[in-house]
Specification:
By secondary structure, the chain is an alpha+beta fold. The protein contains three helices and two strands; from the N terminus they run ββααα. A two-stranded antiparallel ribbon has the order 1-2. The longest helix is centred in the middle third of the chain and has 30 residues. The chain is elongated and about 55 Å long.
Length: 95
C-alpha cells in the first residue's frame, strides 16, 4: 500500500500532509470555486435583467450562500468528487 502522506502544493512551496487532509483542502477549494461561479451568475443575472444592478446581485448571492442546504450540498458534492477521482487515480496506478 502507498504512503499515507502526500505533497500539498501551496504557491511555490509544498508541504507533506496526510492524504485525507489534502483531499479535504481540494474539496474546500472546489467549493470556493463553485461559490465564485454562483456569484458571477447571480450578479450578471441581476445586471442584465435590470433587477437592481451589481449591489442587488451581490445581496442575492449573499442570501443564497447563507443557506446551510446550499453550502452543505456544494461541500458534499465537491468532497464526493475529489474522493472519487482520488480512488479512480489510485486504481489506475495499480494496473
Amino acid at each position: 500500500m502507498s504512503s499515507d502522506r502526500t505533497q500539498l502544493a501551496i504557491g511555490r512551496n509544498s508541504i507533506s500532509v496526510p492524504r485525507l487532509t489534502k483531499r479535504f483542502v481540494e474539496a474546500v477549494i472546489a467549493t470556493g470555486l463553485t461559490s465564485i461561479v454562483a456569484f458571477v451568475i447571480l450578479v450578471l443575472n441581476n445586471v442584465l435583467t435590470n433587477r437592481g444592478g451589481w449591489i442587488e446581485g451581490f445581496n442575492v448571492w449573499q442570501s443564497f450562500m447563507r443557506q446551510p442546504a446550499i453550502l452543505g450540498t456544494m461541500l458534499l458534492t465537491s468532497l464526493v468528487t475529489v474522493l472519487f477521482l482520488s480512488w479512480q487515480r489510485d486504481r489506475e496506478m495499480k494496473r
